[in-house]
Amino acid sequence: MRFSPLCRHIFLLCLCPLALLSQSKIPEIPPNEVGFPLPYYSPVSGTFAEIRNHNLHLGSDFKSYGLNGHSILATFDGYIEEISYSKTGYGLSLNLYNPKYKVKSKYAHLHSFGGSLYDLELLRRAVLLMGDPTGFQLKLTPGMFSVKKGTSLGKTGESGSGISHLHLEFRSEKGIINPLYFPEIHQKDTTPPTILSLYLEGDHLENPILLTAKEKTKGKYDLYTDSGELFESIPLTGKIRFRMSGYDFIRSRNKNNVYGMDLSVNGSPIFSRNFDFLSYEDGSKKHQFYDINRSSLAPPVYFYHMYEQSKNFKEEGFSLDLEGYKPKETLQLELSLRDATGNKSSVFFKVVHEKNETETNRFSKNKRTGNKYSSNDGKIILDFSKTEVSGEGSLLLTEVSEKEVPFKIPTGLPLKGKIYQIDTKKMSWKGEGLGEWNIGYMPTNKESLYFYDSSIGKFQSITHKKKANGFSFRLTKLGYIMVLSDETPPTIFPMTSLARYIELPEVRNHCFEDRYYVLGDTGSGFRTSVDLTIDGQTYPYEYDPDRRAIRVTIPKSLQKERPYLLLEAKAFDFAGNVSEPFVDLISTSGWSEELQASCPVME
C-alpha cells in the first residue's frame, strides 16, 4: 500500500507521534549536498540500529574488502571539528561539521588522516609523539581544516574494534541519523527484506507459537506451523504480541538490519516504526526494539517488536487488543518489513476474535519462588532477581532427550547427562540471569557447559565456572543447555593470501612481512597463547581478536641472510587438548625489491 505525502503526514501525526517527532529532529540539509563517503560504491556491511552486545550500532559500516588505505571523502561542505584516537572502540576517528545545518559526520576505524589535508596527518603524529600514545581527543579551531564535499580526508583502516571497514555516523544536536536516510548513500537495491519467522504470543494463549516464513512470490510470504501446516488463521482474544524475525540484503551477502516495519488490520495501519533516527538516550535501550533474549549479533538474527515497548522495561507492550473488537469478528492482518529504498516484504493471516480452546501445554511446569525457577528434578536453578524482568509470564525449563532436540551434537563432544530447554511464556529479561547446575560431582577438565542458541540455530559460548558439584553460569538467551566432554584438539591454519597484505601499497610498511594464522576449536575454546618458533627459536607474535588469529611480524631484512624461514606452531584449548604441529616454510625471495635503506637490519 502506498500513501501520498499528505496522507503519510496525516497518518504519522495521528498514529505515530514518536516517529513524527523523530523526523522533525533530522536537520533539513538538502539531499544533493550529502555525498558518498568513499571513491567507490561500497556495499553496506553493517546497518544503523543493529543489535550489539551492550547498545545499538549507531552508524553504517562500509566494506573495504579486507584492505586498509582507501580514501575517505567529505560527505558535505564543512570543517574538521575534532580528531581522536583510542586502542578500542572507534579507534582513529574524525568529525566533519557543517555549521549551516548543524550536522556532523563521524568517520571511525581509520588508518591515518591526510589525503588533501596532509597537515592534519602531521598533527596526528605530533600529538601521539608528544602526548599519550594510547589515545587522545582534540577539539580543533573552527575553520582550521575547511573542506568541500568530496575532499579526501584520510585512509580507511582497522583501528579500534573490528577488521577493515569504514564506520560512518551522522549526528545532530538531538540524536543520530541513519546514513541511509540520505539518498546519495542509499544502496540502490531491488531486493526486499527477508522474513524468517513470526513469534505470536497472547494473554489467553496457553503457549507462544513460532511460525516459519517461506517466500511465495517476491515480497510475499506464507507462514507454517512447526508441523509443516500452512498457517492462515487463529482464534484469539485479549492482548496479543507479534515479534517478527528477518533481515535485509543490501548489495552484499551481509544480513543487515531493516529500515522500518508496519502492522495493519483490515488495511488500516496501527503500528509503524522507522530506524531513521535515534535520540542519544535511545541508543542504549535496545530492548525497546528487539526481543533481546532471541536476537543475536553473530550471526545476525533480529526479532523485532511489532509494538511499542516501555522504556523502563517494567511492562511488556502489545501489538493488538482484541477486546476492542466484536465477538467472532475476523481481522485481516499484514505485517511488513521495509528497506531504505522502499522494498517491502509481508506476511498475511487472519485472527478470529474468540477464545482458543484447542491449545495444549507442551511444557512442563516449573517450581517458582519470586524470580527464581528450578527444573522438576531440582538440578538446575535460575535466578532473575538481579535482572529487569518484563511481562507477567514465567520461565519454562524442560528436560528433553537427545532425540528430541532440533540439532546434532558435534562429533568429538560426547554428551554427559541431561539436556534442558529454556524458553519463556509472556516474559523477557534484560541482563544476566544467574544459574546453578548440580551434576553431583566435580566436572573433569574436559567437561564444560555448552549452549545451543535457538534463535540462530548454532552453539554459542556461555559464561560459566566449574564448582565442586557442577557449574554456575550466566544466561542472556533462550535455547538448550547441556554438559559435553571436549575430546577434540584445536586447529591452526594460515589465512588466505589476501589477508597477508591487509594494506594497499601506498600505506603498507615495506620493512616488514605480516603472517596471519587462524586459531579454531569446536569444543571448549582455544587459548590465545601458542607455542611458536622460527628456525627453532621462540618468536614473538600478537593475537588479533577480530580475526581470531595470531599475527607474526617478520623483518624483511632477514632476506639478506636467510633464503627460507621455518615457522612451527602448536595451539591449545581449555580442555588440555593440543593441536597437531603446524609448519610453514616461508621463502624470503622477492622481499629484496621492496627493501628500503631506512629499514632496520637484523644482526
Which stretches are poorly predicted, pLDDT < 50 over at least 5 residues?
1-23, 359-365
Global mean pLDDT: 88
> Into which percent range does the helicity of residues fall?
under 10%
Rounded Rg: 27 Å
| CATH fold descriptor of the largest domain | Coagulation Factor XIII, Chain A, domain 1
Q: Please identify, by name, the CATH architecture of the largest domain.
A: Distorted Sandwich
Oligomer: single chain
| Number of individual domains | 4
- Gap between N and C termini: 74 Å
| Quantity of strands, as a count | 46
**Tell me, what is the CATH class of the largest domain?**
Mainly Beta
In DSSP terms (H or I, runs of 4 or more residues), the helix count works out at 3
Q: What structural class results from the helix and strand content?
A: mainly beta
Main sheet overview: 13 strands, mixed
What would the principal axes of the Cα set say about the shape?
globular
Determine the strand fraction and express it as a percent band. Answer: 35-45%
